[in-house]
Amino acid sequence: MKEAELKALISLLDDPDVEIFNQVEQQLIIYGPEVVPQLEASWESSFDPLSQTRIENIIHKIQFEQVQNDLQLWALQNNEDLLEGLLIVNRYQYPNLDENIVQYQLAELRRNAWFQLMYDMSPLEKVKLLNNIIFREFGLSGNTTNYHDPQNSFLHKVLETKKGNPISLACIYSIVAQKLDIPIYGINLPKHFVVAYIEEEHESPLFYINVFNRGQVMKHDDIYSFLKQLNLPPKEEFTLPCSNVAIIKRVLRNLTTAYDNLGNMQKKEEISSLLNLLNDFN
Predict the structure, then answer these.
(1) PANTHER family recorded for this chain (predicted)?
(2) What confidence tier does 186 reach under pLDDT thresholds 50, 70, 90?
(3) What is the pLDDT of residue 52?
(4) Rounded to 5 degrees, what angle do the CA atoms 270, 100, 160 make?
(5) What does the pLDDT look like over 101-143, one tens digit per residue?
């Protein structure tokens, strides 16, 4: 759209007539992300609190609509890429993040492990190497002091603070492993997300890995005992690798719980709507 037309619309954002404002807001949302830089510039030059608040809300609505679109497209066409799904979730809270930072940090972890990886290593030796790189050298660990913090679900914050919840740590672990052709995949274990080493696709895991406990190796019996404590049967959905869509759904469920605990109902409802978008995908 023409810059003069956009400026004219933005100038109406402080109009006291609610009907006029609603029309302007809808028009700006329809234009989408391309108008965000102009809105941000207008916010910075404005001294009117009402206008600034309205601009903030419009920017958020535009960016949230973009996240919804990105998530749907990912689920339909690109759900083999777990990292992209996690970055889309990240955009909900951090829409202006330079995502190359995340890509670089994960590439560094992969590179550091690759230098020490040898072809004839056993599966357990490979896991020991990953544990050393990710937990001892990089310093990633479970956030035991603030387990339900929403930041535990945003990938770049987990890499920045080096603390996360079971699923965020498991995602980083499996992404780095798979970049090294080490077959480690997420397991949708109730109450505690873990990963597993799978030598051949669709085969039963060789063993499981508790990433929240610094890569502790677990046997099948450990998983079955855990499920028994929860009064749950050892069904395949709890013991075999899950889809990336299932992983992102679980990340979103964690976020709804986190925002509910904080009493932030707006964010809880928005994350719930993202979760609903994925409910039709398996």
Answers:
(1) F-BOX ONLY PROTEIN 21 (PTHR31350:SF21), SI:DKEY-261L7.2 (PTHR31350)
(2) very high
(3) 84
(4) 70
(5) 999 999 999 999 999 999 899 999 999 999 999 999 999 999 9
By C-alpha distance, which of 192, 181, 169 is closest to 239? 192
Domain limits, the chain: 3-77, 82-278
Cβ–Cβ under 8 Å, residues 93 and 154 = yes
* Spatial distance between the Cα atoms of 218 and 127, rounded to a whole number of angstroms: 12
Q: What is the pLDDT of residues 143-173, one digit of tens each?
A: 999 999 999 999 999 999 999 999 999 999 9
Of 86, 163, 164, 182, which is closest to residue 125 (Cα–Cα)? 182
Longest dimension (CA), the chain: 72
Q: Is residue 178 exposed (0-12), middle (13-18) or buried (19+ Cβ within 10 Å)?
A: middle
Question: Contact, 130 vs 176, CB < 8 A?
Answer: yes
Q: Which residues contact 154 (CB under 8 A, 6 or more apart)?
A: 89, 90, 93, 94
Residue 167 structure tokens: 């699923």
Task: Write down the pLDDT at residue 51.
Answer: 80
Question: pTM of this prediction?
Answer: 0.91
Q: Do the beta carbons of residue 257 and residue 265 sit within 8 Å?
A: no
Among residues 280, 281, 254, 248, which one has the least CA distance to residue 268?
254
